[in-house]
Amino acid sequence: MILSFNSKTMGRAFAFVILFICSFKALTNELLLTGQISSSAKQVVNAPQSSRWQIQIQWMEEEGKIVSEGDVIAVFDGSNEQSRLDQNQESLERQVLELEQLKMEQERKLSEAQGSLKLALMRVKKAQIEASVPATEVSRYDKGQYDLALQRALLEQVKAEEALRRAEKERSTELEKKRIDIQKVEEEINYLNSLLNRMNVTATLSGPITYGIHPWTQKKIAAGTNLQPSWKVLDVQASSNFQIETWIHEIDAVGLEAGVEVELVIDAFPDKRFIGLFDSISSQSEKRSQWSDSAYFPSIIQFKDAPDVNLAPGMSVRIHVNAGDKNDA
C-alpha cells in the first residue's frame, strides 16, 4: 500500500512531534548531562613541534599509574633532530677551525699590504732626497730622472695605501661572513636542543596518568602512534581539587549560567547524591564531530561540599539540572 502525504498532513505531523517533545520535557522537568571527574591541578602533555609534520610517540607511562613530580612520563621520537644536531655540531667544529685559518690568512695578507706600504714610503723618501738636489749640481738629465723617480714612488705609495685599505676591508668582511655562518649553526644547534629537550617529558606534579583520544580514530593514543603537533597525548592530574568537566549542547545551554545548582551522581557510587554548582560556562562553543555536527559549550562544575568518597580523575558523572532552576537563571 502506498501512502501519500500532502503539505497539510505533514504540517500537522510536525506540530505533533514538537508538541510531544515539549510535553516530554515538561513532564521530566530535568536536563541530564554527562561529565567526568578531573582536577583543576592538571598537566596536559601535547605532541611537541618537530622538524617534520608528524612525530611519533615512542613510549608512554602506563595509564592509571600514579607518577611523582620529575618522573619521565612520555618520550617522543627525536632521531631526526638528533641526526641533524650531530651534523650541525660537526659543521660548527669545522667552521670554527676554518675561522682560525681565515684569520691567519687575512693577517698574512694584511701584513704584506702593510709591508708594501712601508717599502713604498721608504722609496718616496729616497726619491724626495734625490729630487731635492739643486739642478746646478747635477746634469739636466739626472735631474729629470730624479723627478720622474719621485713621481713613480708617489704613485706606488698611493697604490700601496689602496691595497692596504682593501686588505683591511677584506679581512673585516670575510671574518664577519664566517662569524655569521657560525652563528647560524649555533642557532640551529640551540633550536634542535630545545626540540630534543621537549622529546622527554617529565611530570610537573604527582597524580595518575590518563591517555588522550586520537582525534581521527577516536581511540586512545598508544606508543608508536604518529601525531601532529599540539595533539593531546596524555595528562597528569593531582589527587585533589576535584571538579567535573562537561559539554553542553548549544540548545541546552540556553538559560544556563554560573551559579546554577545541580545534582551529581558518580557512576562509581550510584547510591550517593552530591550537590554541585556551575562554576564556568565557556562563551565560545566548539564542534564535537564524534557526537554530532552541533556545537557544544565546555563547562566546569564545582562540588558544593567536599565528597566523602575516594575520587579519581576520569570517573564518569551524571549531572541532573532542574529545568525550573535553568529557566529562573
Provide structural commentary.
The protein folds into two domains: 169 residues, Efflux pump adaptor protein, beta barrel domain (Elongation Factor Tu (Ef-tu), domain 3, Beta Barrel); 118 residues. Helix content is 43%, strand content 26%. The protein is built from four helices and 15 strands. The strands form three sheets. It has a six-stranded antiparallel β-barrel. A hairpin with a 7-residue loop joins strand 13 and strand 14. The N terminus is likely disordered.
**What is the radius of gyration?**
41 Å
Please count the beta strands (DSSP E, at least 2 residues each). Answer: 15
Task: Enter the CATH topology name of the largest domain.
Answer: Elongation Factor Tu (Ef-tu), domain 3
Count helical runs. Answer: 4
Span between termini: 51 Å
- What's the helical proportion of residues? 40-55%
**How much strand content do the residues show?**
25-35%
Determine the CATH superfamily of the largest domain: Efflux pump adaptor protein, beta barrel domain
Summarize the biggest pleated sheet: 6 strands, antiparallel, barrel
What's the pLDDT, averaged over the residues?
Answer: 87
Strand order of the largest sheet: 1-10-14-12-11-15
Give me the CATH architecture of the largest domain, please: Beta Barrel
Shape descriptor reads rod-shaped
Poorly predicted runs are: 1-5, 7-27
Structural class: alpha+beta
CATH class of the largest domain: Mainly Beta
